[in-house]
Amino acid sequence: MRGEDNFVDCNFGNIGVEGGRLAGNVEPAQGEQPQPQQGRFNMFLGVVKTLIVRSLIIYIITSMFKKPTTVTTPDGVTPIADSIPNVNFFEYGTKFDMYVYLSEDSLKNVINESELIWKKTDLEYGDWTSGPNNDGTYTIQKSFIPSSNLKNNGSIYLHVYFIKKTNSNISKNDPYVIHAFKQLNKFKKVKFLKTHNLLTGETSATPEHIEKAKKIETEIISHWHPNLTICLVTDQTNWTKGSIPEPFSENLEFLPNHRYKPMVFFNDFWNMLRDYQPINKTVKTLDLTLTFQPLSLFKWQMYSAQTMRNKWTAGFLGDTFTPDPNEDDQDQDSLKEALLETSPYILAATIIVSILHSVFELLAFKNDIQFWKERKSLEGLSVRAVIFNVFQSIVVLLYVFDNDTNTIIRISCFVGLAIEFWKINKVLDISLDWERRLLFILPFIIFREKGSYAESSTKEYDRLAFKYLSWVLFPLLAAYAIYSLVYEEHKGWYSWVLNMLYGFLLMFGFITMTPQLFINYKLKSVAHLPWRMMSYKCLNTFIDDIFAFVIKMPTMYRLGCFRDDVVFFIFLYQRWIYRVDPTRVNEFGFAAEPVEEQPQAIEEKSQSIENEKPEDDKKND
């Protein structure tokens, strides 16, 4: 059962780089470790479900801003909202020119013609048919030599001016000139891990990385992406000043005479993380491809939603709970690749199925808690499997802390571990021995098996099941440990143990479900299993199987998606051959179907009733 591998639910697709030298590395040219293919599908589903949740949050929050917002001036005066609607300063068909400058000055108070890299004249507002591709877009490619300041974590900006043909003044101070700018380089945090082969001491890291890893753990490095799209939003909506929600209020600039400037949007949404290159002293030239494109208001809202989501996440959760930007970018890259490479019909089906997947996970979690909360007898259940799940959760939690993941993932793993510990209280009797103390302070904790488990044959079957399981599990664990020690790099022996155990549980964790199959076989019954919870997990497993052939992924992982199905089908086969007797009375004294009384029993019951009659009644008979 895929759901039984509870350590997979925490979505560890972006937790460090196992056996690599960099975690969160954005430098593919210098040997970035690729993301493990095995977790790609799980991460894709997780990103889609996260996107759905984010969309719902955005919808709910934006609905709260439908009322006129209250703006306060620095003097503490609340202005009255303008009731007269404002119209776009650029009407459809307006002729304008575009000037693009490349400068290291973010303010750009003085126009320097030597910094002009693109001048495009005779553009028309609302034109979707011009250009080489007849879609209203124009492209230019440039190369420039970075300055020494830019190579030393400096910044460089792109300034864009849109000017009507009737205006020849290029100045951002002119209220009728549309000016926008964007920082082209992006600062990313790179983590340096001192990993090496524990046997040979060798590492695949470059000497530069080895030296940096000895001195610092993280470094802020400027990165460059060669593509950027300049979008002029095409829209003629009449907006009322003082009563518009975010993000419109942050991007609309109003003019006198009830007009507003069209919005400018720098679109870098489709820039993949793997395409960024670090800007350092070895860089000789930087390439830049600029594209001008008209943009509809609907698409602008879709792109702006991502920016608003980042602000709301930081505002509501704070920096402590905000995901690492590099990890978030990797999630976004997975979503972008799916949008680019997958059919729209499949994407629509993915969104629908992802919602169902989330609902089934929630129902399975709820029924699992309810099953163990109401369970009185442990007959037929594997107690050792519950204890083993606690071990799994501890390994996952330690692995998460060792790889410096964000706080949200740590909390989710800690909650999962707390639930597994709660289950121990349901399968074992726990008491404190105050006469024996640990370190002369803490009392000894005594675990005793519950009577319903110890006094039944389930205990012996459980012991035999794990005995047979160990014959398979321990050789596989030894083989995987040797492979990880010989061929992979680690930070130390502690990290090697955690990475080895986590990787082994991720690969062979489904084997731990076989003891329950053995107990079912010995008892010739499956009535003790939480079938409602297992049904929800079964549905999620089949959903994973369907998408294993829909989503692009390695063949070995596609085959691995069906490993849980084998166990599920065995459970279903056992449910078919070990039929539940509907006439059997349960612990509450009820049966699904009434038992037909035998003739002899009916006769004996009648005789007993006859004997209980009074003498007067017998004479009357």
Describe the fold and architecture.
The protein has helices at about 40-65, 150, 205-215, 250, 295-320, 325-340, 345-375, 385-400, 405-425, 450-455, 460-485, 495-510, 515-525, 530-550, 555-560, 565-575, 600-610, 615-620; strands spanning about 20-25, 85-90, 95-105, 115-125, 140-145, 155-165, 180-185, 185-190, 220-225, 225-235, 255, 260, 265, 275-280, 285-295, 430-440, 440-450. With about 625 residues, the chain is of the alpha+beta class. Among the domains are: about 45-60 and about 85-335, no CATH class; about 345-375 and about 530-580, no CATH class. The strands form 5 sheets. The protein has a 4-stranded antiparallel β-sheet. The longest helix is centred in the middle third of the chain and has 31 residues, at about 345-375. It is elongated, with a radius of gyration of 33 Å. The protein starts with about 20 loop residues before the first strand and ends with a helix. The model is unreliable at about 1-40, about 65-75, about 315-325, about 585-590 and about 595-600 (pLDDT under 50). Pfam families: CLPTM1. Keywords: Membrane, Transmembrane, Transmembrane helix. It is a multi-pass membrane protein. It comes from Aphis craccivora.
